[in-house]
Automatic annotation (TrEMBL), chain B:
Stated role: Part of the AP-3 complex, an adaptor-related complex which is not clathrin-associated. The complex is associated with the Golgi region as well as more peripheral structures. It facilitates the budding of vesicles from the Golgi membrane and may be directly involved in trafficking to lysosomes.
Compartments, as annotated in UniProt: Golgi apparatus; Cytoplasmic vesicle membrane
Chief location bin: Golgi
Coiled coil segments of this chain: none
Keywords: Cytoplasmic vesicle, Golgi apparatus, Membrane, Protein transport, Transport
Keyword NADP belongs to the record: no
Protein name (record): AP-3 complex subunit mu-1
Species of the source: Ictidomys tridecemlineatus
Family annotation (InterPro entries): Adaptor_comp_med_subunit, AP2_Mu_C_sf, AP_mu_sigma_su, Clathrin_mu, Clathrin_mu_CS, Longin-like_dom_sf, MHD
């Protein structure tokens, strides 16, 4: 149908008017069906002509009308050829509308759609990122299986695009391609893996979405990106946040041990307070060691907290469910406030949030108790909201608040909304059973309701009272009598049936009334509802058994009526009862037990929350809302008994060429990592991390216990197995090096890209996290001996000899880089934070032994670059500006500190007083020597102060507050790696030796771009010293300059260029 | 995620459909209509409906149903929140979110939906970004476009999309630079029969209208920030500064937006500015009842209470009402049984009241419960919690902006039980 016929048939106004107007000119329509038909044809002709005209405005008009047709769900597919021609239109609006059309109809007209592909392929190369992105969007949306390879190619290219927007679209395209052709999964996973590494916040949400859709089980892809995702989370757009939080919740449940154990354990202990000590001891031993939360686990919980303040309800809910599922129970309390806030939102949000609160409030009442009143019902709430609120109120009811609640319920019972009133009565029943103090009060209240005017209310009360009485074996003769009277007035079948049942059950307690009731019922039997009839039969049978004298005839009369009832259920029941209770020759052995059968003690019904069984679904999910497992629902796994290796999350800072091979994968599958595990199991993690790649960064195994024992054992093991470890890793990396046509100096370390051409060897690199640095600290503490050796080496400035070379270092291909051989390959893009692995610690310790007598003298800096960094911008500092630079002077405050000079400027128009350093937030191990407070700084004045920071040899940021009299500003300093170095003086020979020894240490590399003609040693040197604080080693060879420096605490690095 | 979207008007016509993946037949909406029928009341249509092959998540806003079709597990709030964002965007673009407006601008609607979702996942939802991609329709622009042939569609990626402040457009220029803040507080309360407060709390928002050139960096501080118990922020606000200094520091979006919404801590006693004296009674076995309400000021901090409206949902058995107001005017809708009394201002000398008779359906039992009164009012130049803005500073730009803060207190869900 075209829009023309629409106009004829529907006569609707609005958007149609324009079309109608146009039609009047285009068709002189005769009446009748034929006319309609012809104008139909003509109409499309008209659109086709417009599309073929060479005026953009005509085309645009035509396209707008076609989009209007699509929007209404009308078929416009026959215009496909005419539309598709315009896909290459210069006019961006036409183009967009054509895209809309294509996406809608390409699936139906695949052959024709192929005509447009080349246009998109061209557009994919367009310099405008918006055009590239939209081309990719349309190309991936047209769902034509034949172009799968083209899509795959386009996605691969786009995933490496410079524009994050295009990469984001690539992530979306992954899902589209996957749904079109699941065969591509493997290749797509590769792209996902690559995009997961992306540091742009724009991409993060989309790629995690793709991950969830394509390969949610490949949790291993997340490990390396876990910390990055946690840290980026706040800056990701809100929709991405939701997806990432849900994914991380699942991740956390597989990777960390339960934080709830401790709580439970404590409770256990309390309970068992009076048990004998022995038993207690056993228990504690059972629990092995006290629970300490994995720092990564903590990181996630900490970084999601600010998002509770999001304006987006979905984000708040996502954080709430994350806290609910993975945080220690004591911390989950903070989410209740935010969830209650969401209740101010529109009804749909309220509905979902209340559902989730209902589930939560069953398990942990305490969380929402302070907000009890927020769940009070208003008469204007929709019924579904009212019932949910009621549900929550019931869950929250306890001895303390029940009286207030019951008062509130009284109002609800009178509500005009009878459905809601009935629900309230049910609720009162539930409260009465749960809280024994109020059972009687509730019962009395309910009995009062029996005289209510509204039948639904009365009926509901009867049903609830029946349940309550059943629960209480106590005599309630009065109530039963009262209810028996009600039978005359009440008409609701359920209520009548309930009363009859109740009387039947208690027929011995009301011996006078029961037969009378039966008499009345026998009279009205035929007109009763089926439900009631069944209960009449039951009542008859029970009375027959207890009081056959009075009721024998009545019962038989009823049984006769039942025998000819229309309903087969009733006929069935009648037959059954007759056989059971009326003794005759045919009756079997069962009739002896008839009384036992009919008057057995029946278990009381359990009044439970309808939300009880929802808790096995993850909160906030569709499945939870529907209480059915929705397709694609990913089960939240139980906490693992033992946490999987936490070191997998460590990020290699600098990825050497070799890390581009799938070593990551190999390590997962390769059981050969047990290679080193002759040592205890405890060490497994550290070993495996050292095995997966030499430059693996620090594992937290050392951190967990922080114990010296562990350090020692890791030392032992690396000493024991170091030679094979070394050689193995040597081979591995040699192969890699060859592959990359690079002759790297054989280093156990990392290469970093900076703007100087150099290889840095570091004996020790910084930890990428607090955990790492703390492990460094602990290692150096335990090795205080070696530490002091270093100190002495520094101070005496005496060059010694290395006495021990027990580590076969020289046997390896310790090759320095020849310039000739140096290929200007682009070193892989790297992350800025280096990390330290336990194997490095071990190496360090080995090093300590071997270089015990060698002393290194600190040299003077060759060059001090004047580059300053902004510490505090004047705009954010309310006129106070601060810049800092590294003077490359040995720090006067301590050997391990780096000196930093801070220049403070007052750009405001008033005096700034009392400038000082406020609260410091330093990672573990870092130290800072602050400058003396500055009393005042005149307008336009500036002052330079120096301070010392011990960065623990890492590029971690030091954050602290710069305070004035009135304000505090949060500022951070992150040192470039080159500034952490200190030059030392030594001979070339020593340099070589040291270099050999340091093989395998962290390595930082960068490329210097220089024109061949001015490629002079001095120029290279200049470039190198510009970025790193190194010295020059006199060299025999012309084109090799070596610089060497001593790291502050204990590390030794070399630079060669 | 979101597969398709159907827009349905009150009479059950599907007047717009949009598919982001394969086409889903309109017949899927039948399940929705079924649920709608069952619910009787539009308010009671369940937001999430399960059908054999799909899940329908819907919102009801401005008399329109936005029904989205979902195929796999997704957080329902995600979809609900997004649909509301769509409705807000329409409101923003066309001035109203109505069937007529959407039908009139169907092409722009389509372009917007295309930009907002890609493959069912939100792509751009910030209004400032969308406005750069697709210009909102104005009469002037359509005239210009028809003459010059230029289009409504931007051809470069909005700068906001890539920057870390996606909410702000680049190159904003105003001749008059102004920044206005409205502190709006609403009192939610339930007052019981005897006039005592069952429940009361204050919810507030700060809405901003910022028309500043360039990239201003604002910081707004309060005299008494401790009052704010629970706050939710526009993404532009720097959370860290709030945590450490209780200062709202932000680079604002251009135009109107909600800066924060907050709840005042529950320790503070809430001042209830009005009281209602009421006596509503229905006589047994008679077809009439009496209705008498009087409103008076209470704890109004010396300000005038204005814009008072009383809405009462009368019981079903009420046929008609014969009332005389001493002030303002009243209407009673015999179909919906809603009584609305537009009072206006309270003058303490003469308290407004509404008295009269209620006609009941004869023979029907008298209503069980008296209806509750919903009250609306407004107090200008007062934030009932006592919240006060201390100062607004601007950094990063040279000019001096006009600044203004306005306080208003309103009744939120203010209900008096009778």
């Amino acid at each position: 149908m075209s829009s023309n016929s629409f106009a004829y048939t529907e006569q609707s106004g609005g958007g149609e008017t324009a079309e109608l107007g146009q039609e009047a000119t285009s068709t002189i329509s005769p009446s009748g069906a034929f006319g309609l038909f012809s104008s139909d044809l003509k109409k499309n002709e008209d659109l086709k002509q417009m599309l073929e005209s060479n005026k953009d405005s005509a085309k645009l008009d035509a396209m707008k009308r076609i989009v209007g047709m699509i929007a209404k769900g009308k078929n416009a597919s026959e215009l496909f050829p005419a539309v598709v021609k315009n896909v290459a239109s210069k006019n961006i609006e036409i183009k967009k509308l054509v895209y809309v059309y294509l996406v809608r109809y390409a699936e139906e007209q695949q052959d024709l759609a192929l005509l447009s592909i080349s246009t998109f392929q061209r557009a994919l190369k367009d310099p405008n990122q918006l055009i590239r992105a939209s081309a990719l969007r349309v190309l991936s949306s047209i769902r034509v299986p034949i172009i799968v390879p083209i899509m795959m190619l386009a996605i691969k290219e786009a995933s490496a695009d410079l524009s994050p927007y295009v990469r984001k679209n690539a992530a979306h395209a992954i899902q589209k391609l996957y749904s079109l052709d699941p065969e591509q999964k493997e290749m797509l996973i590769e792209v996902i893996e690559k995009l997961l590494k992306d540091k742009s916040t724009l991409v993060a949400g989309s790629v995690v979405m793709a991950f969830e859709e394509v390969c949610p089980d490949r949790i291993d892809l997340i490990h390396k990106n876990y910390r990055k995702l946690c840290n980026l989370l706040v800056d990701v757009e809100e929709w991405g946040q939701v997806v990432i939080i849900h994914m991380l919740t699942r991740y956390a449940r597989t990777q960390f041990v339960s934080p709830w154990k401790e709580d439970d354990g404590l409770e256990d202990n309390e309970k068992n307070f009076y048990e004998s000590d022995d038993e207690l001891k056993e228990k504690t031993e059972d629990r092995k060691k006290p629970y300490s939360m994995d720092p990564d686990h903590r990181l996630l919980i900490r970084n999601t907290k600010p998002l509770l303040q999001s304006r987006n309800a979905a984000v708040v809910m996502a954080v709430a469910q994350l806290y609910w599922h993975i945080s220690p129970k004591s911390e989950a309390g903070i989410i209740s406030k935010s969830l209650v806030r969401l209740l101010r939102s529109n009804r749909e949000v309220q509905y979902i949030v209340l559902q989730n609160i209902a589930t939560m409030s069953i398990q942990r009442k305490g969380m929402f108790e302070p907000y009890l009143k927020s769940f009070y019902v208003r008469s204007t709430d929709p019924t579904m909201i009212k019932t949910l609120k009621l549900e929550i109120l019931t869950n929250l009811a306890n001895e303390a608040n029940i009286s207030t609640l019951l008062r509130e319920f009284q109002t609800y019972v009178k509500s005009q909304d009878k459905q809601f009133a009935a629900a309230t009565i049910q609720t009162i029943g539930r409260c009465a059973t749960n809280i024994s103090e109020v059972t009687d009060t509730c019962l009395n209240g309910l009995v009062c309701l029996l005289s209510n005017r509204d039948e639904i209310v009365v009926a509901e009360s009867v049903v609830v009272i029946k349940k309550l009485l059943q629960m209480q074996p106590v005599q309630h003769g009065e109530i039963i009598k009262h209810m028996a009277k009600l039978l005359d007035s009440i008409t609701v079948p359920v209520a009548r049936a309930s009363i009859l049942w109740l009387i039947g059950e208690n027929c011995e307690r009301v011996p006078k009334i029961a037969p009378d009731v039966l008499r009345k019922m026998a009279k009205s039997f035929t007109s009763e509802d089926d439900l009631v009839k069944l209960q009449i039969l039951n009542l008859g049978a029970k009375l027959y058994l207890t009081n056959s004298k009075q009721t024998k005839l009545l019962t038989q009369y009823i049984l006769n009526l039942g025998k000819y009832d229309q309903n087969y259920d009733i006929r069935d029941r009648t037959r059954f009862i007759r056989q059971l209770i009326v003794p005759n020759e045919k009756s079997g052995a069962l009739s002896k037990y008839a009384k036992k059968i009919f008057l057995a003690q029946k278990p009381a019904p359990l009044l439970e929350s309808p939300f009880k069984d929802r808790d096995h679904f993850q909160l906030g999910t569709l499945s939870h809302t529907l209480n059915i497992k929705a397709s694609g629902y990913l089960e939240l796994s139980n906490w693992p008994e033992v946490a999987p290796d936490p070191s997998v999350r460590n990020v290699e800072v600098i990825e050497l060429a070799k890390e581009w091979t799938p070593t990551g994968k190999a390590k997962k599958e390769n059981p050969a990592k047990k290679f080193y595990s002759e040592s205890e199991e405890e060490e497994e993690s550290s070993d495996s991390s050292s095995s997966d790649s030499e430059s693996e960064s620090g594992s937290e195994s050392g951190e967990g216990g922080g114990s010296e024992e562990e350090e020692d054992s890791s030392e032992d093991s690396s000493e024991g197995s170091s030679s094979e470890e070394e050689s193995e890793s040597g081979d591995e990396s040699e192969a890699e090096n060859k592959r990359m046509a690079t002759r790297n100096s054989k280093n156990k370390g990392k290469s970093d890209t900076e703007d100087g051409k150099k290889k840095n060897e570091k004996s020790k690199t910084s930890g990428s996290s607090d955990a790492d640095s703390s492990s460094i600290e602990s290692s150096s503490d335990s090795e205080s001996e070696s530490e002091s050796e270093y100190e002495s080496r520094k101070t005496t400035k005496e060059i010694g000899k290395q006495t021990k070379q027990d580590r076969n270092l020289l046997t390896k291909d310790v090759s320095l880089l020849d310039l000739d051989d140096f290929n200007p390959i682009s070193t892989p893009v790297v992350l800025p934070t280096p990390a330290l692995s336990p194997s490095l610690i071990a190496d360090l310790e080995g090093l300590n032994l071997s270089t015990s007598s060698s002393v290194i003298s600190v040299g003077t800096p060759v060059f001090v670059p004047g580059k300053t960094h902004v510490l505090l911008h004047r705009m954010s500092g309310k006129g106070l500006a601060a810049n800092y630079f590294f003077p490359r002077q040995p720090c006067i405050f301590g050997d391990k500190m780096v000196s930093v000079q801070i220049t403070l400027n007052n750009t405001s128009d008033r005096k700034i007083e009392n400038i000082h350093i406020g609260e410091k937030k330093l990672p573990v191990g870092m130290q800072m020597h602050v400058f003396h407070p500055i009393d005042s700084l005149e307008p336009e004045g500036s002052i330079t102060v120096s301070m010392g920071i011990d960065f623990c040899d890492s590029t971690q940021t030091a954050s602290f507050q710069l305070c004035t009299k009135d304000d505090c500003f949060n500022v951070t300093i992150q040192p470039p790696i080159g500034e952490l170095l200190l030059p030392v003086t030594m001979s070339e020979k020593d340099f070589k030796k040291e270099q050999g020894m340091l093989t395998g240490m962290n390595e930082t590399s960068a490329v210097i771009i220089a024109a061949p003609q001015n490629f002079t040693p001095s120029m290279v040197l200049q470039k190198v010293v510009n970025v790193a604080n190194v010295g020059v080693v006199p060299s025999g060879q012309d084109n090799i300059h070596r610089s060497e420096e001593l790291k502050f605490s204990s590390s030794l690095r070399k630079v060669c260029s | 995620m979101i597969h398709s979207l159907f827009l349905i008007n009150c009479s059950g016509d599907i007047f717009l459909e949009k598919h982001w993946k394969s086409v889903v037949s309109q017949s899927v909406c039948d399940y929705f209509f079924e649920a709608q029928e069952k619910a009787a009341d539009v308010e009671n249509v369940p937001p999430v409906i399960s059908t054999p092959h799909h899940y329908l998540i819907s919102i009801y806003q401005d008399k329109l149903f936005f029904v989205s079709v979902i195929q796999t597990e997704v957080p329902p709030l995600f979809v609900i929140e997004f649909l509301h964002r769509v409705a807000d965007t329409f409101q923003d673009y066309f001035g109203e979110c109505s069937e007529a407006a959407i039908k009139d601008n169907v092409v722009i609607v389509y372009e917007l939906l295309e930009e907002m979702l890609d493959n069912g996942f939100p792509l751009a939802t910030e209004s400032n970004i969308l406005k750069e991609l697709i210009k909102p329709p104005t009469i002037l622009r359509s005239v210009v476009n028809s003459i010059t042939g230029s289009s409504n569609v931007g051809d470069t990626l909005p700068t906001g999309q890539l920057s870390n402040i996606p909410w702000r457009r680049a190159g904003v220029k105003y001749t008059n630079n102004e920044a206005y803040f409205d502190v709006v507080e609403e009192i939610d309360a339930i007052i019981d029969k005897s006039g005592s407060t069952v429940f009361a709390e204050i919810q507030g928002v700060i809405d901003a209208c910022i028309k500043l050139s360039g990239m201003p960096d604002l910081s707004l501080s309060f005299m008494n920030p401790r009052l704010l118990d629970d706050v939710s922020f526009h993404p532009c606000i720097r959370f860290k500064r709030w945590e450490s200094e209780r200062v709202l520091s932000f680079i604002p979006p251009d135009g109107n937006f909600r800066l924060i919404s907050y709840r005042v801590s529950s320790q503070n006693l809430v001042a209830i500015p009005v009281y209602v004296k009421h006596s509503i009674s229905f006589k047994e076995n008679s077809s009439c009842g009496r209705f008498d309400i009087t409103i008076g000021p209470k704890q109004n901090m010396g300000k005038t209470i204005e814009g008072i409206t009383v809405t009462v949902h009368m019981p079903k058995v009420v046929l008609n009402m014969n009332l005389t107001p001493t002030q303002g005017s009243y209407t009673f809708d015999p179909v919906t049984k809603v009584l609305t009394w537009d009072v206006g201002k309270i003058t303490p000398q003469k308290l407004p009241s509404l008295k009269g008779l209620v006609n009941l359906q004869s023979g029907a039992p008298k209503p069980e419960e008296n209806p509750s009164l919903n009250i609306q009012f407004k107090i200008q130049q007062l934030a009932i919690s006592g919240l006060k803005v201390n100062r607004l500073d601007m950094y990063g730009e040279k000019y001096k902006p006009f600044k203004g803060v306005k306080y208003v207190t309103k009744a939120g869900k203010f209900q008096v039980r009778t």
